[in-house]
Amino acid sequence: MLTREENEFLCRTDKGTPMGEFCRRFWTPVLLSEEIPEPDCPPVQSKIYGEELVVFRTTSGKVGVLKEFCPHRRASLFYGRNEEEGLRCAYHGWKFDIEGNCTDMMSEPADSNFAGKVKILAYPAQEAGGFVWAYMGPPELQPPMPQLEYLTVPENQRKTNKVLYESNFVQVIEGEIDTVHASILHSRLDALEKSATATTLAGRYSYRDIAARFHVEDTEGGILIGAKRNAEEDSSYWRISRWLFPWVTMIPREPHGSCRSGLIVPIDDENCWFYLCRWNPYGPLDEEWNEAPRSGMVPGTWLGKANSTNHYLIDRQAQKTETFSGIPSAMGRAQDAAMTDSMGRIVDRTEEHLGTTDTAIIRMRRRLIMGARELEDGIEPYAASHPEVFKVRSGGALLPREVYFKDDPVVWDDITVA
Amino acid sequence: MLTREENEFLCRTDKGTPMGEFCRRFWTPVLLSEEIPEPDCPPVQSKIYGEELVVFRTTSGKVGVLKEFCPHRRASLFYGRNEEEGLRCAYHGWKFDIEGNCTDMMSEPADSNFAGKVKILAYPAQEAGGFVWAYMGPPELQPPMPQLEYLTVPENQRKTNKVLYESNFVQVIEGEIDTVHASILHSRLDALEKSATATTLAGRYSYRDIAARFHVEDTEGGILIGAKRNAEEDSSYWRISRWLFPWVTMIPREPHGSCRSGLIVPIDDENCWFYLCRWNPYGPLDEEWNEAPRSGMVPGTWLGKANSTNHYLIDRQAQKTETFSGIPSAMGRAQDAAMTDSMGRIVDRTEEHLGTTDTAIIRMRRRLIMGARELEDGIEPYAASHPEVFKVRSGGALLPREVYFKDDPVVWDDITVA
Amino acid sequence: MLTREENEFLCRTDKGTPMGEFCRRFWTPVLLSEEIPEPDCPPVQSKIYGEELVVFRTTSGKVGVLKEFCPHRRASLFYGRNEEEGLRCAYHGWKFDIEGNCTDMMSEPADSNFAGKVKILAYPAQEAGGFVWAYMGPPELQPPMPQLEYLTVPENQRKTNKVLYESNFVQVIEGEIDTVHASILHSRLDALEKSATATTLAGRYSYRDIAARFHVEDTEGGILIGAKRNAEEDSSYWRISRWLFPWVTMIPREPHGSCRSGLIVPIDDENCWFYLCRWNPYGPLDEEWNEAPRSGMVPGTWLGKANSTNHYLIDRQAQKTETFSGIPSAMGRAQDAAMTDSMGRIVDRTEEHLGTTDTAIIRMRRRLIMGARELEDGIEPYAASHPEVFKVRSGGALLPREVYFKDDPVVWDDITVA
What we know:
The structure is a homotrimer of 418-residue chains.
Chain A lengths: L3 H8 L6 H6 L4 E5 L11 E5 L2 E7 L5 E5 L13 E3 L2 E3 L6 E2 L5 E3 L17 E2 L1 E4 L2 E4 L23 E8 L3 H8 L14 H5 L5 H5 L7 E6 L3 E9 L4 E10 L3 E3 L8 E10 L2 E9 L36 H6 L12 H9 L16 H18 L5 H4 L9 E6 L8 H6 L4
Antiparallel strand pairs in A: 1-11, 2-3, 3-4, 4-9, 5-6, 6-7, 7-8, 10-11, 12-18, 13-14, 14-15, 15-16, 15-19, 16-17, 17-18
């Protein structure tokens, strides 16, 4: 439970808010690279932390992130012409480069030096891992990129995706680090019965002992979560997940299996993007997406076909006979979104009742709030300036009963990037 | 005319408002029984007095009315599983019975006693007359059900229905007890001409003398309205209607004819449900609905096909040559809704000009306001705890000029339930 | 740049605001005459300066402009019956004439004198130039109609039209008097190349010297704008436009060519109507509309088919190879609307950076603000009571380099109505 004030503090990220300033200390994804696929392609709008931006790729292939509105008379640069290393407003042809300089002003006399006095707000931008990233914090504090493994693996070892959520980013993060709901919300009704013949640890051991015991440890990058279930007589099944500042998640995986991470970025206080990366640290990634395949999205959007307007296509007959939720799994993360979005745009945490399996959630909130409070006191976030703290993975393991997951060297190796 | 303050006082029913608390002293319909047709069928959302609720039918057929959001992390129980005498949240499987007890908590360890400490807000609920009713007031003051005749007649003697209005409940009540507009808004242009051969009192005498004289009397249950029109040389036509606390209406009828009552329940301050019952006190009801047949509703909703988005399908040619309004009558109470909804979500009563035919409206408002003010002073509403005051009907009569409608024993017998 | 306070002062026109009161001193178009084409035709809703109105044509052909809501219980008179010199409410049949008198009250007794005590707010109305005009200011100050030429030319010499903008009226006015953007936003990519063979002054000289030098003069009616471009070695091309109080614009034209004027009327603070008139002062008007043909509107509305919901149908390929904007020109003024509406409903003028070509815009704002401030001080607007100040046209001319446009008698004759 949070007080109303804590909840507001936690969730609001507009410019000038404590959490907004905290988040802006980190490089933030603003688009998938594929959304601006080639030089001089059409610019794309992106709202991040409540700020309207326009993102474009220059003639030489660089990415630019500008405030959406032309500084002249505020027409949207979304309608602009992307040409010769700059974005030109369609209204009077003012042209801006990726650093925000006005490089041409065709509406003013040739001998005018007005262009030299005009700048548009431009954020430093770069590409990594299939995402376009911007840094929206104080220029003098620009940090290095986080050393997330999936930003550097070869392209054939990763896939990226993106889904719109109609709720605040914190409750979506909470869903990600809440590994217990996977055995419930996402389960089939015959999951326990079929577990005997399952070929994965998750399939075999997630349903016999649902109420996992949580072990949460603070790390410099965020938190490390071990959720322990009884497996065989003498063994435990550990599901190991991560939350990293300020909105990075990594859900449990099979030992040495492929990985998945979420980047859960505020659009504004009532909507967020769920950027996903699936990657294989060890070789080519052949797997299909099973959470949010492109065919499950409303065409031309990043909204799942199963969404709030159609009650996430819940099938009450399927809910009775096949799956726990009755909601399809391949229509844009619909099962998760139905939970997260139905709480209301910003969930009222003064009314919640947290249990032992919410331990990770409690810790994540505390770290986020503490980080933003420290920043208010002038203490810059450690993780922003120490990119190596992001060199981690999630994990999964079957271990003898008495072994703590972190103490097993093979597990440790698997959840740490060399 | 009301002051702005009076108008606010009269119309607002959220939790904690004087009128909201007053209304919550009465059993309130939250659904039609047919909306949850069988044991363990899908739960249904219902917002009443601004409170989001979920309504469901248990395995044993009982009805439950819970707050919509799971007390754990506030996911909507609308997506829940209705199974084995309880509603189970789809997120982590917390299960609640109709009294709000948490009867299972699969996400917590088996030896946890957390479930015993968690409750969801549950309102007492029951079914009567084809409606699901909830009591949303203080538990210690739970009253008996109102002894409305149509809650106890055999099922073949009644029919129920429901229509969405996009405006505050009070102005919809006002339309119901405003019996004069029937001779105008709902009339055909040849009504007067055809009245000579009409077979009903209403058809014969509603159009010759439109500006009825109103006689309004306070009753313990609300008000009794007699609207007197000249009929033949020596006779009067009386249209007799009722308003009962806090939102029950009964419009005039033919002598000993079938009856109709409205239950006009706030969804929130800007929308309301019009629950209808048509019943025959004396035998089977064979009549068709002519106000809001199901075929006239937008499929899958309770909104009339003629609604604000299409200007209630007004046909200007029909308005010139056939009917007074040009609006169809069988598309979800469209003629009434066009008037009530076009006033604005909450009509500005500081700008109105009431005439003699608004006498009943003035009295109804005064009773409602007085009731809510008395409750603020600690005086509980008499009608809530005296269910017998609802044992009444509306009526209609042709009487000698000098006879007051209440003084005629046949009429009195017809508008009173034995 | 304006301060936030100045921007609010400039843009807000609800009843009681300084700019709203200033605008209400002038006759204001509320509909096209063609929208109420014949006696006793259906009434039409129109919101102007934030006030909901209903406009109708009586049996004898006069136009009436009333507040939309019946003074009885506030039902919308849009649903009313238009019959025998008055508009009758569909609810209880109260009937009002164009002066706001209640001429019949069928719901009250025949001997009642209540009708005589009830009035509805009625604004003086008249037709001119294919528009219905209302005067919404203090009755005792009702001015004569502005002597705009197009209000008096024969019908075959003019055409009228109307388009919805989803933004505040001031930024739409700014677009109209910003004659430089025509050479940019509205240009084809081969405009300069084709200018050598162009047959109009605009086609020949708008693209060689885009950054025109502005000469703006105050007039009693508003401002007169001359934008000077180098043409041939020894000549200048002048584009001459007008802004007249409070929202009349006239864009440049060919010498002695047909004219165009805009009447940019607030619906509310976030939407406006662009009423257009094209006229030929000298003879029949044969030209087609090329800005907002009726076939380019969403059927049944005055919204262009290219609008904010579809990003104004921008064609990025066309933007690369054919036109500067890629936005179609004949879908409801889409190129202009994309600029004006994308600024936000009310553009934030605290963030703008104005150049030399914004001189006219700066002057127009100053005159509007000054006019409204003077009115606050009790000084009535001169232009409202001096209709002859509207006897002007815009213009265009090719003149020797040293001649100032106003000093050429042929030009002066062309931009002045005798």
